């Protein structure tokens, strides 16, 4: 059964086992998503990158990610919400997931749940179903509380994956702040020094922090975020390479072309032609 709640201020939260069949949810480009495979497998594409999820795997997607469900080989749950219902940026002190669970790069968070973790999330889902059936003036806030609990539980699971403990929690918060800043500023700021200045750290210190957590270098994080945005603009709009280079803050088309070739191994035109040959659905203006 599907559950959906809309507020008077265009807030939206939904839970469905049939996202691939729900036209309105698929069309809504404002939604953050948890996708959790509960049995069998699920074949999807995120930003045109194929991915096969198995039982008790969960991924998190931002409104920037383009999701296409290719094949459903079991049962999966999708938990969705928009910023009008719950703003993860404005409430970062409550859930600490911005720039961690949710980030604009195509390198998305993918978690494998243990039996206990799966049981804990199922308990939250059960509470969400119960609260969805109670229609009173407290329902909206109760659903928001349940969503927060789901986000926090997934954040804790992700922290375990990256071995975030009390002694290195401050270090990881700096890294998370870096991801948030990159998401907000990658079009204007493309050097590690730019972000080091904001965080009152040296570029070398940031590099050491990322290495200590087994993460890509800060410069690679910046470059991957730019690459993801470039590909989205090439895939889902008809903008020219020159227009895209300007949108992404490059000095000229030649600089953008060199960057794209270095990151992908293909020229901009080669990439676009290859995707078109793979019969990508009609793009939007």
Question: Would you write up a description of this structure?
Answer:
- This protein is 47% helix and 19% strand.
- The protein is an alpha+beta fold and 285 residues long.
- Strand 3 and strand 4 form a beta hairpin.
- Helix 3 (115-132) packs antiparallel against helix 4 (139-161) and helix 9 packs across helix 10 (253-264).
- The protein is globular.
- Strands 1, 2, 3, 4, 5, 6 and 7 form a 7-stranded antiparallel β-sheet that branches.
- The protein folds into 2 domains: 3-161, Jelly Rolls; 168-285, Orthogonal Bundle (Arc Repressor Mutant, subunit A).
Please write out the topology.
Blueprint (H helix, E strand, L loop, with lengths): L2 E4 L5 E5 L6 H5 L3 E16 L2 E6 L2 E5 L5 E16 L9 H4 L14 E3 L2 H18 L6 H23 L7 H17 L6 H8 L3 H10 L5 H19 L4 H7 L5 H12 L3 H10 L8
Antiparallel strand pairs: 1-2, 2-6, 3-4, 3-5, 3-6, 5-7
Helix pairs in contact: 3-4, 5-8, 9-10
Q: What's the gyration radius in Å?
A: 20 Å
**CATH-assigned fold name of the largest domain:** Jelly Rolls
Poorly predicted regions are: none
The count of domains is: 2
The number of helical segments is: 11
Assigned CATH class of the largest domain: Mainly Beta
Could you give a short account of the major beta sheet? Answer: 7 strands, antiparallel
Element-by-element helix/strand order: EEHEEEEHEHHHHHHHHH
């Amino acid at each position: 059964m599907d559950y959906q709640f809309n507020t008077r201020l265009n807030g939206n939260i939904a839970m469905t086992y049939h996202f691939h069949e729900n036209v309105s949810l698929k069309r809504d480009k404002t939604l953050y998503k948890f996708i959790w495979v509960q049995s069998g497998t699920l074949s999807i594409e995120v930003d045109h990158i194929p991915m096969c999820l198995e039982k008790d795997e969960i991924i998190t997607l931002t409104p920037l990610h383009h999701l296409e469900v290719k094949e459903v080989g079991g049962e999966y749950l999708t938990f969705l919400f928009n910023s009008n219902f719950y703003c993860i940026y404005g409430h970062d002190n409550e859930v600490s997931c911005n720039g961690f669970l949710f980030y604009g790069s195509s390198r998305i968070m993918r978690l494998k749940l243990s039996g206990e973790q799966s049981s804990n999330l199922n308990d939250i889902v059960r509470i969400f179903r119960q609260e969805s059936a109670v229609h009173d003036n407290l329902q909206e806030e109760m659903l928001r509380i349940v969503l927060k609990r789901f986000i926090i539980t997934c954040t804790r699971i992700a922290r375990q994956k990256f071995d975030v403990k009390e002694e290195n929690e401050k270090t990881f918060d700096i890294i998370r702040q870096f991801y948030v800043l990159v998401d907000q500023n990658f079009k204007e700021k493309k050097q590690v020094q730019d972000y080091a200045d904001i965080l009152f750290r040296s570029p070398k210190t940031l590099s050491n922090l990322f290495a200590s957590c087994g993460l890509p270098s800060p410069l690679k994080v910046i470059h991957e975020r730019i690459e993801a945005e470039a590909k989205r603009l090439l895939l889902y709009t008809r903008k020219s390479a020159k227009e895209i280079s300007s949108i992404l803050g490059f000095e000229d088309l030649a600089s953008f072309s060199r960057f794209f070739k270095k990151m992908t191994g293909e020229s901009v035109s080669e990439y676009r032609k290859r995707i078109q040959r793979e019969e990508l659905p009609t793009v939007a203006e």
